[in-house]
Amino acid sequence: MGYKVKLDIFEGPFDLLVYLIERAEMNIYDIQVAEITSQYLSYVEQMKEADVNVATEFMVLAASLIEIKSKMLLPRSVPLENGFEQEEDPRNELVEQILEYKKFKAAASLLETYQQEKMRCFQKPKEDLQPYVGEADQLLSLDIRRFVSAFNLFLRKKQRVDEVRRHYTRVERQKQSVEMKVQYIVDFFKRHSFRQVFFKELVPPSGNRYDVVLTFTSMLQMIRDRLVRVEQHHSFGEMSLELVLPGEEEYGEKGEANDDQKDD
Questions:
Q1: Which of 17, 8, 6 is CA-nearest to residue 105?
Q2: Which segment of 42-51, 204-213, 249-258 scores lowest on mean pLDDT?
Q3: Greater pLDDT, 195 or 102
Q4: Which ranges form a coiled coil (predicted)?
Q5: Which residues of 44-64 are buried (b: 16+ CB within 10 A; e: fewer)?
Q6: CA distances from 213 to 151, 181, 219 (A)
Q7: Are 28 and 104 contained in the same domain?
Q8: Is residue 160 one of the residues assigned to a domain?
């Protein structure tokens, strides 16, 4: 049974190096070269088992790390012209390369974000506007008298529209409900002191099919609520509505009941 090592995907040698430094939470200006070199070489060995060609690219940086590691073990004092000595850090060049790498990586990430946002945008194809280019010049070349005449015509039309708007108001037709129509019929009986009216009297003179249907539906509702009695002597004949007074309904029912008893 074979043993497989799963490696993270790194875009290059510095990508792996930055990953190891960030994972170890090291200060980039104080890299522990010995520790990082050991971890880096361990990753490179795993890469060599997976793909030798890929590992070759990483081995160049591994060699640089080993070189820095060896320099860290040697005396680092450099004599100056004034007789003093200055300590030289062999990690300086590596730090500069890492900072440069991180700068370019951040720029690449920003450009990738812009690219993804751009892919979500759709631009309108460019149209040929040549037919409209000469329109302005054509209007400007009109005769001044025709232009004044057209402007006066526009003012007169606007004046007429404003005058109509001052005298008339647009009114939206209000749709009535069955409950509102029932109340209207009850008020109609009270207002005219009528006991009996014809159906057509309850429909407005300017009423349309909607008013007829609404009045008929309201009449059915009032029959069910025992508010009116309706008579129609023959098919398609005129319907007359009689208002049922309070208490009259019970009397009528009793009267019908008495009639039934008489029949028995």
A1: 17
A2: 249-258
A3: 102
A4: none
A5: beebeeeeeeebeebbebbeb
A6: 51, 11, 10
A7: yes
A8: no
What CATH number is attached to the domain comprising 213? 1.10.10.580
**90 compared with 152, residue with greater pLDDT:** 152
Separation of alpha carbons 190 and 187, rounded Å: 5
First to last CA, the chain: 107
Q: Which two tokens stand for residue 114?
A: 């812009």
* Residue range 218-241: mean pLDDT, rounded: 89
C-beta of residue 72 within 8 angstroms of C-beta of residue 33: yes
Q: Distance of CA 102 to CAs 15, 31, 32, 91, 240, Å?
A: 9, 15, 19, 16, 95
Question: Residue 51 corresponds to which amino acid?
Answer: D
Is residue 222 situated within a structural domain? yes
**Could you tell me if residue 82 is inside a domain?**
no
Contact residues for 58 (Cβ-Cβ < 8 A; gap 6+)? 13, 16, 40, 43, 44, 47
In one-letter notation, the amino acid at residue 208 is: N
Q: Residue 16 CB: number of other CB atoms within 10 A? A: 21
Among 161, 139, 160, which Cα is nearest to 150's? 139
Domain tally, the chain: 2
Rounded to whole angstroms, the Cα distance separating 157 from 155 reads 5
Q: Domain limits at 200?
A: 178-243
What DSSP letter does each residue of 118-149 carry, written as one string?
Answer: HHT--PPPP---HHHHTHHHHHHTS-HHHHHH
User: Is 164 within a domain?
Assistant: no
Check if the beta carbon of residue 43 is closer than 8 Å to that of residue 58. yes
